[in-house]
Protein 1
Amino acid sequence: MIRSSLSEISNAIGGSLIKGDAMVERVVTDSRASCDGGLFVALKGPHFDAHNFLPQVVEQGVEGIVVEQESMLDIPQIIVKDSRRALGAIAKFNREKLGAKIISVTGSSGKTTVKEMIASILQKKGKVLATRGNFNNEIGAPITLLEMDETHDFGVIELGANHAGEIAYTASIAQPHVAMINNVAAAHLEGFGDLYGVARAKGEIYGELSPEGFAVVNLDDDFAEYWLKNIYSNVITYSREKEADVTASNIVMNEEQCAQFELGYRGETQQVTLSLAGEHNVLNALAAASCVLALGGSLKDIAIGLAQSPVVSGRLMTEYLENGCRIIDDTYNANLDSMKAAIKFLSAFKGRRVLVIGDMAELGELGRDYHEEIGLFAKEQGIDVLYSCGVLTRFSQSAFSGEGQHFSHQIKLIEELKKEAKENVTILVKGSRSAHMENVISALMDDSDKQTGVIASSQGEQ
């Protein structure tokens, strides 16, 4: 955060400042964290109220507090009606003082990958701050923006949502120069109703662009035309299948399923080799390239940054057991499209291909249909065996109607997988966060000395 006075902040967010003034250089929301030189915002939720921990944060050296009711503590405090909204207002106040260029990204699948790709490219041009982990909601996005100060040149802000209006809110705080929707898929349908609801919610990101800003649009997405009709800023398009500003051609996959291709932009081309596995990452790379091109980046810089994109834990991350069995960890999250991408990725390997899936969450009334679709798709892709665990994946198992077994609990599943884990076998594990399929990966890896993971990819985050 750019160093500011409490009086400045209070005026900006419409609060009431009492008991003095002070200078602060950061905002704190976790009462367990160090508070020196900070402004503590006392957030409230269904199961917590940070107002109960004010004495502790004062003891830890906080300079001021943001509260919904006056505290008896002798410390400067800004009184507001809603501390959560105040956090967003403070973040917007800080954002308006920044000189950095802001890129905001959203989408049902792959947005975290795209965020990391963009950050990798821009690091060659200046100081970059990118969203950490999944800090992409109405609390996480403001916290990310409050980590930025006058030393940053770029901010790459991931925006997620599980209900309508959330992206409009966080994007209004981020005020991006460039906004991008990677795709729309069957994720969080309980909050949006259907895919059209998802598309409308994601499209809110474009509504916060100024006429001078850039909207990056995936022409391969079914909702591209809908978004284009409602954009009133500059547009950069990308596609693998259609004529677009940014394209990929001559795609070749190596032995580890990493793509090499020619990146094209309005008549210019550049050879690119991706560090992340999976053909689906070609489209993610086009999304990242488009965002950087909107800021005036070069194809050469983009190629270098894409080649150095970091490993993202839990996203098609490949490791090997001592006996040569390949284990692919794609447990970060799952929806229909990302599950299909993972299955297609698994199908490209030689030897015995074992798919292990947990439930996909928040699919509403379509939960059974989508899980059956996954089983059928795995069969079509020639997957040798399917193991499933959970409630809805039993429908996947039935639709697959081949070798494998459904389990209600992970203990029995893990026992069976340890028998499968042999040379010339590839085991891919995937599920939504609520399925906790990372436990399966840990059990397999802990049972054998492992070599260093060599390849990682990303598609399953939501």
Protein 2
Amino acid sequence: MDQGDCIAKLLVDGYNMIGAWPLLVQKKQQEGFEAARRELIEILANYSARKGLDTHLVFDAHGVPSPSVQEVVTDRLSVHYTDFGQTADTYIEKVCARLMHQSRRNHRIIVATSDRVHQLTVTGYGAEWMSARQLESDIHLIHQQSLRRRPRRSQPARRSLMSGLDQEAQEKLMRLRFGHRG
């Protein structure tokens, strides 16, 4: 890795996003926390891939007595469920402290949370901070940019039975259509 290279890490307080984004609030109300978590994971998987971020989505143990678990979703996104009694805030703070105290300081750390106290703590470690709304806006912007980059067709492609067949099958079908056998 060159000295100029920088690893960009995005640390996201999952339940903070679920409580702040209207889409996820509605999903949670209609289908529950699990559905909102799945939706957030899908959104962040796409966003992380497009932005080239190493994203860590963190969820509190949420009152469930279980050990911490890490799930690798993609090469750009992992989901971390904290130990029982550990908050997402403390987990994120430990990651910030560890990365900032490593001998190589080639990490750019961005923490997404709207918790004001947590914001002050992580910026004290040298991390950048973005609110839940800022992250939501950036995700929307990246999505809109990707839609504009897609090539547009002047006319919709015609789908027919013939277009799905190989040349030999097309010829046989044409012979049958016009009453030729063989």
Protein 3
Amino acid sequence: MRAWGLVRAHLLSDLGAKTFDSWLKPLQLVSVRHGVVQLSISSHVRADWVRNHYADRLRHAFAAHLPGVRAVQVEVAAAPAFHAETSGWPSDGGMDGSLAQGADAPAMAAADSPLPAALSSAGQAAGPAALPAADSFSQFEPRYSFDSFVVGKANELAFNAAQAMVGAATGGGSAGFNPLFLHGPTGLGKTHLMHAIGSAVQAANPAAKVVYLSAEKFMVEFLAALRARDTFSFKQRLRSADLLMVDDVQFIAGKDSTQEEFFHTMNEIISAGRWLVISADRSPQNLEGIESRILSRLAWGLVADINPADYELRYNILRAKLATMPQAHVPDDVVQFLARKIQANVRELEGALNRVIAYGNLVNRKLDLDFTREVLADVLRAHSRKLTIDEIQRRVADHYALKINDMISPRRAREVARPRQVAMYLAKMLTPRSLPEIGRRFGGRDHTTVMHAVKRIEALRATDHELDRDINQLRRALDG
């Protein structure tokens, strides 16, 4: 398929040869159906890395050449790599072959093509009336299931409400509310729960019409329908849904015509006894630029918040993630370290784990705390609180049962000098302070004394296991 070659050429130019060869070159094109591109790769680690770091780039690159593409899915290859010549498509021929083949390649017969008509030509945009069919909105990510959602205090209400919504939408129970409004900061699992709801409803009732789309997509498709003078088809596709889910509703703020249509769509769904799930990054009361009648409707149902995960939940999320990656061997102290340090959101937490595993595989390094800190140095700087030399001195003095004054005294006895060297080493490793500044904080010592202490401790850690254990324990305490 010529478009796949063009996409690869675009990504190569955009990202550079090193990044492209490491992560995107191994991707194989499987299919393009109903606006969803299916790609495969042979490694779980690479698949996770591509999903977390390049999914949007891939989607935009495909959409530039196949205007009807709205999603890109990356799975681990379960079979031999896809070959274009066996699919009815012109041979890709690799990067050079796909570009050289050009527009002179034989055209595909529409009946044999795995592409919908709107995508049958890589270089032709779909006409204004070529809006996707309803089932093309309902592409749910298999890995976003209830089974893979790790539950804790921060998200328990939202999880239980999502399951209740499935029961109500499939006739297996009564939710007692409609709509369900999920809210919370980005990366905490709102979209995961919406995919889980959609997948569960379709699994229980394959005949159910489930429509999922982002608020941005709602707006784009509505405006396209206005331009095409075909709003009736757009309204019918959404308002006839048994379950309608709209993600990130905050994006329609200030869009008057879109809000008008959204309000009437909500009313139609709820009045007809069908089900509605909405998500946003904040509660209805805190949404700005949204009409009050919409906010009133949203607050009429159940408002379920998803809060930032606490340490226990973050740790369990990482453990659940590793359970799906049996080839990855990550020590528990590294998992604990990540759970303590990466607190922003679940997406960033899992991304940090993927990054450590991927780098370890690429450079063939053992995954330990030192390597983790090295790989995530930029991330950790963004998340770290400002550690002071005074705090390091106090922690080391407590660990070795010394007085804080021993850290700055002129005493050279081994029971004092070695802990002092450890404190200097940790000050150099864990703070941005210069050697002369560290020396001044240790009783006015010269920077060469600090340099000697750092080198001495580094050398001893390789042979003195008790000292190495002390330093790891101190670093964990200081990190926490």
